[in-house]
From TrEMBL:
It comes from the Eukaryota. It comes from Penicillium cosmopolitanum. This is Transcription factor domain-containing protein. InterPro entries: DHMBA_Reg_Transcription_Factor (IPR053175), Fun_TF (IPR021858). Coiled coil: none annotated. Residues 1-41 are annotated as: Disordered. It holds the Pfam family Fungal_trans_2.
Length: 452
């Protein structure tokens, strides 16, 4: 019931079992289509003014749309949603994820039960849609599969089970997009789903320590984005996945360590040579206070605040930083294992130990920069600066949760920096009402797109 066992197999259907309703020009809630995202007036209005008469599922969808597509997360989703007529698999999957999100925010068991029932219905409808040979439905079905994956990480359950369900859905979405014609990716919304699938497949493979599937590379060529930095980044991620997968399968050797060092140098060079729109869009400013939200006896470091042109720009830079942290962690792990397996006392050992020290210092700097993307205590004036109001505050806070949780996991932090990270994670969890920070890796696009 909670797994898409047949998703990959059904991505290239041979015979139809049912047909979905034809697309409509607008969604049933009366919101106009937008190939970017809904505005506060479009979404908050129904929540505030119609909540007494509007079905709970529609209210949940409105909340989810504004919280997750307002320039921070799933920008392509409102347009995809608006193109489809109810009841489509996309509408049903979105309602299931939205009810789960609302249930978490309000701590209501009855909503969790409704969400679970909606998930079962959406899963059945999506599997039926996979039998539909109409090519125009494939992007909708892939989006539906991603929403089912998001449901898996929103809903509380065993973490191992969640990872398996998540990976299953992700591979299903990849298989669906792999069967699409190239001319189906000619809109902003289709490019959005393309980049989202690429990103989460990359993250899933890195987490599972496996190489990237061959069909993923075929999707790279369908991107509209600047072919320079984008293709270079995807190439580095492929190399990172390959080296990560090889660690543990073969004995550590000096040539393997050198490959990882070269990869880390490539990440460093990419970050130094980003386009001007990226490299000149932020500045350091000192924190105004460090006392808020501190527990008794707790100490933290003073972290400068990085100001970006937009929250999405902060996400893109954090994606680069997290990938660099992964390469550094891989380097330190491989080097430490090698040093422990050979006799010591050589000049080579001294060089490797110096490499470890340098890597640790670099990791501390990167972690500090990730922390600097978090506005001090998520001050309201920072929301105003970025034009973020109302429900979207939680979306922005949530977008910072995943980078912070990954930064927390690295072994290179000082005690004071670790305290700072843990404190900000607590603040973010309180604002976003989502304590499952694994949710970030699914809802945050994570691709280094060049549209600024």
């Amino acid at each position: 019931m909670h797994q898409t066992d047949t998703t990959v197999k059904k991505a290239n259907p041979r015979s139809p079992k049912s047909k979905l309703d034809p697309p409509s020009s607008s969604n049933s809630d009366g919101n106009e289509k937008n190939d970017n995202y809904y505005t506060p007036d479009q979404v908050i209005g129904p929540i505030q003014m119609q909540h007494l008469i509007e079905p709970i599922g529609s209210r949940a969808v409105n909340l989810f749309m504004f919280a997750f597509s307002g320039g921070v997360y799933l920008d392509y989703l409102p347009a995809m949603y608006g193109y489809q007529a109810k009841p489509s698999c996309l509408h049903m999957s979105l309602e299931a994820a939205a009810l789960a999100y609302m249930a978490n925010g309000h701590h209501r068991q009855d909503l969790r039960q409704m969400a679970l029932q909606s998930y079962g219905a959406a899963l059945s409808q999506t599997n039926r849609a996979l039998q539909n040979p109409k090519a125009t439905m494939k992007l909708e079905t892939a989006t539906s599969v991603l929403l089912l994956a998001l449901f898996a990480v929103i809903s509380p359950r065993n973490s191992d089970q969640t990872q398996n369900i998540w990976s299953e859905h992700v591979r299903g979405a990849l298989a669906i997009l792999g069967s699409c014609r190239p001319d189906m990716f000619n809109s902003l919304s289709s490019q959005g789903i393309l980049h989202h699938v690429i990103s989460i497949v990359q993250i899933d493979c890195l987490d599972r320590r496996v190489q990237m599937p061959p069909q993923l590379k075929a999707l790279y060529a369908l991107s509209w984005l600047n072919p320079g930095p984008q293709v270079q980044l995807w190439s580095l991620i492929d190399r990172l996945a390959e080296l990560t997968a090889s660690i543990g399968r073969t004995p550590i050797c000096l040539s393997g360590i050198e490959q990882i060092r070269n990869l880390d140098s490539s990440f460093e060079e990419l970050m130094k040579c980003m386009p001007e729109a990226y490299s000149n869009c932020f500045e350091f400013e000192e924190c105004t206070t460090t006392a808020t939200h501190l527990s008794e006896g707790e100490t933290i470091e003073r972290i400068p605040v990085l100001k970006f042109a937009s929250p999405r720009m902060a996400q893109r830079w954090n994606t680069l930083r997290l990938l660099r942290l992964r390469s550094i962690d891989l380097l330190t792990s491989a080097t430490s294992d090698y040093l422990s397996s050979v006799p010591g006392g050589t000049h080579l050992d001294e060089g490797l130990e110096l490499c470890l020290d340098n890597a640790s210092e670099t990791a501390k700097q990167i972690t500090t920069e990730i922390c600097a993307t978090v506005p001090e205590h998520l001050r309201p004036d920072q929301f105003t600066r970025y034009g973020i109001m109302g429900v979207a505050e939680s979306a922005w806070a949530r977008s910072l949760g995943w980078p912070l949780s990954m930064a927390k996991a690295t072994a290179h932090n000082s005690e004071a920096l670790q305290n700072y990270i843990e404190r900000q994670i607590r603040v973010i969890a309180g604002i976003s009402s989502t304590h499952n920070l694994d949710f970030q890796k699914g809802s945050q696009a994570g691709s280094l797109d060049m549209d600024g």
